[in-house]
Amino acid sequence: MNYQNVIVTIGDDFVAEITLNRPDQLNTFNTPMALELDQALHDLDKEKTVRVIVIKGAGKAFCAGIDVGEVFGKSTLEYRTWIERMENPLVSISRISKPVIAQVQGVAAANGAGLLAACDLAVMAENARLGLTAINVGLNCVGPVVPVSRSV
After folding, report:
1. Under a CB-based contact definition with an 8 Å cutoff, are residues 100 and 115 in contact?
2. Is the sign of the CA dihedral 106, 3, 44, 141 positive or negative?
3. Domain boundaries in the chain?
4. Which of 32, 44, 57, 90 has its CA 20 to 30 A from that of 67?
5. 6-151: which CATH topology?
6. Quick count: other Cβ atoms within 10 Å of Cβ 33?
7. DSSP letter at 97?
8. Residue 14 pairs with which residues in a beta bridge?
């Protein structure tokens, strides 16, 4: 599949890398990126030359959450469908057969912290910062609290 918002590379060492590629937006999830990340995870899970998947962010951030610009103007039903789409890659990580490692630099906030929490392991740079910030926009975000503490 041809991706625009993620970069997928497969090395000779059985390691695949998925780079979140929206650096100007701090790699925030939007609909196209969420769909592409989910598809890339499924594609790499089927790939016989891959034994482990590393997820990282382009630029100075791992992932600063969800692009909240997509939220406005949605009905309750549209919002629910949209938020499920944002969470699908996180659910997919728990279902695929290969270990997934988060390589975190800079900010991992909101859904970015959730992505980190969904991974089997996280390796964090010295400049990494975590934030469970959904409360700042009126959302409850307790889901990743325990997994984040176990994966870092």
Report:
1. no
2. positive
3. 6-151
4. 44
5. 2-enoyl-CoA Hydratase; Chain A, domain 1 (3.90.226)
6. 24
7. S
8. none
Q: List beta partners, residue 140.
A: none
Q: How far is CA 57 from CA 76, 78, 80, 97, in A?
A: 31, 28, 26, 22
pLDDT in tens, the chain (152 residues): 689 999 999 999 999 999 999 999 999 999 999 999 999 999 999 999 999 999 999 999 999 999 988 888 888 899 889 889 989 999 999 999 999 999 999 999 988 999 999 999 999 999 999 887 666 666 555 555 545 555 55
CB neighbourhood size of 131 (10 A): 15
The phi, psi pair for 122, rounded to 5°, reads -130, 135
Distance CA 90, CA 66 (A): 13
* 44 neighbors 52 (Cβ within 8 angstroms): no
User: Scanning the structure block, which residue is given the tokens 């034994």?
Assistant: 51
